[in-house]
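Slide 14.
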Amino acid sequence: MQLGMSESARFSTAEEARFRIGYPNSRPRKSRIIALDAESLEALRDLAGQTWNDAHFLRYVEARPVSDRLHMLPVDAVLEDFDGNRVNLVDEVADADVIVMVTTAGAAAEAAEVIGNACFVRNKLPTGLVLSAPEVPYEVLSRTLINMRPFAAMLVISNGAEYVSEMLSALRV
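Slide 15: predicted structure.
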């Protein structure tokens, strides 16, 4: 090794290159993107046709009673894919690396609570994405955010459906 070489130059040498890992540093993610209401479902329907890495686009149908309610939390629900196939929330969360809940400002938060609880008991950190628009009153958006906040590790507001695609790409969906 030459004296006076910068760190950057030294790590670029053939001698140092033999220590590099020759494969990507991340495995593909298994993502579950769940629409919580009819408007967010339409936004996701438009995106589902794009190319994604093992992403399941689903809609929340209803909570499901479970025999083993951990700490009295509602932790299961019926979800449905765009072909009408019904699946259990518990199974989808267990198999997922990334869970994104998409809702519209003003929508009810019952679904976020059930999904958030299912993620919590499995050590998963869901992301919440709230679709809003400039004409949505602050009080409506605020109520949705307050209701979603306890159940999302990260909560993002989008003022346009085009942002959903960018957000999912940023999460490596």
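Speaker note: The chain has seven helices and seven strands.
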